[in-house]
Design goal:
single chain; 391 residues; alpha/beta; four-stranded parallel β-sheet; 14 helices; globular
Length: 391
Amino acid sequence: MSHREWPMDEKPILIFWETTKACGLACKHCRAEAITKPLPNELSHEESIKLIDQISEFGRPSPILVLSGGDPLMRNDIWELIEYAKEKGIVTALSPSVTPLLNDNTIEKISKYGVSSVSISIDSPYKEIHDKIRGIPGTWDRSIEVVRKMNEKGIKVQINTSVMKSTVEGLPDMVDLLINKLNVRVWEVFYLIPVGRGKFDEDLTKNEWEDVSSFLYEASKYNITIRTSEGPIFRRVTWLYKSLERKGIDHEKIIKHGKLYYDLVSRLREKLGKPKNESKAETHGTRDGRGIVFVSHDGYVYPSGFLPYPAGNIKTRSIIDIYRNSELFKKLRSSQIKGKCGLCEFKNMCGGSRARSFAYTGDPLDEDPSCLYNPGDYEQILKNYGLSYDT
């Protein structure tokens, strides 16, 4: 079933479960504000089994269950939970931290237990910057080694990168690292949300986020699948550029980009030459609360891990009931959003980052402060080239 056909009102595509807050790293931008030991109120083994049972009751095809944290490897029962989810027909992915727990034996288990994919965080192609962000020296080197070993085992690896002031200049070298040195072809780019330990002073400006989105579109032409997390404006940008290219039009000739875009793209082309492929940018219509659900370590259900606005708790209410019937989720799915996001012709395709709205205004339905687009801005471009919004 394609994402276009997926019944978003009935069930999510992805369920992220913060299995524990415990983690051996000390990341400066950590959403979870992870700690060194598990909290006493995290879901017990029995409650975890109950959660997996609830997820299976969404029916097949089941939502994909992403086991995150903290570090899911800090849970003593993680392999039992993975095996149980598999028995229930649930596709399971893993998002571990790169610590000594992620060793050769663990990699062997990931392969043995049939984990569908593993996401490894590499925030910068420069080890000094990555290690400073992650808080533990040597993490970058270990991450590179882990990815290579997983490749050898045939494990599907996705790299996650958080974009912020500390990392944005490294994006071209990041593409080179993924393609030419790690042979990784799936890249999830996280637009920093000031939540948890994430700081407002690391956030980019509206113009910079627009430039990053345009750069990522160009990067996706190098045979690498690029998705964004909390960056739905990437969908709007991708939609326009793809529409123009179908007409044989280069977006650089008609869209005014900023200095950051030209700097990043220039360095990308110096490294990799001019792209020869069509874009592999992925623009699924999911967003916080629409196709996405987050379950916290203690059972609270949020629209995403970056939007700490609880809609219920699985200890007292089924995740199915919360997703389908909570007022917050219903408003998010039906695009009942405010400000220019609510007026925008791209509100169903994009809808803005609800987490960013909440971080800045305290209202998850407010407009996205990272977006410089004003409703109708593309109208003249579309008219000039015979395009329409349903192209």
